[in-house]
Amino acid sequence: MIAENLQSIKEQLPSEVNLVAVSKFHSVEEIMEAYNAGQRVFGESRPQELAKKVSALPQDIEWHFIGHLQTNKLKMVLPYASLVQSVDSLHLLEAVNAWGVANSKRIDILLELHIGAEQTKQGFTEEEILDLCFRASSFKGVRFCGLMGMATNTDNEEDIRADFTRISDYMAYLKDLFPEMEAFKELSIGMSGDWQIALDYGATMVRIGTAIFGPRVSA
Length: 219
Description:
With 219 residues, this protein is of the alpha/beta class. It has helices spanning 2-12, 28-36, 47-56, 74-77, 90-102, 126-134, 157-177, 195-198, 210-213; strands at residues 18-22, 41-44, 62-65, 81-87, 107-112, 142-148, 186-188, 205-208. It has an eight-stranded parallel sheet with strand order 7-6-5-4-3-2-1-8.
């Protein structure tokens, strides 16, 4: 079923959009089924779970970290993640940058823009991201690669489209304002319930879990 789900989604995705299979809470066996069906990019949100899966799964997997990352867990994530999609605070950004400098690495990150209505969601405001982009060259241990966002958790398509419009327009504004940030091109929006809508707003990555693996088995 996982292979069939993957095939169905990939048939609908434009070739330039990267599919991140959200494998958090799913087993090594389930991930291997997706891997054997051709999937190579997977998203995890818990550092301990990521570290265990890295050692148990093929080395050519590209891991994205998509959850809230605590600064005391960086060593479980940054050696393995090719992209940290969920940098959501200045405190975390500075810690990731310091780790990158100390380890002679440049960590690829997305800045998480808070766009949904829920107050519980993490993320920067537009003003905070603008300030960071003005200071991008001062962060020697990270590379700003774009934005990540989550639409409001609702069945109201108009609200979802309004959220995606906001982040898409802001992404375009930043790209125009900071042409020197050549890596700043990724827009990670869209999950299992709204990824098809996200394609209308310039998504370059979609994060899909349930529609591939089915409901997660634990929380």
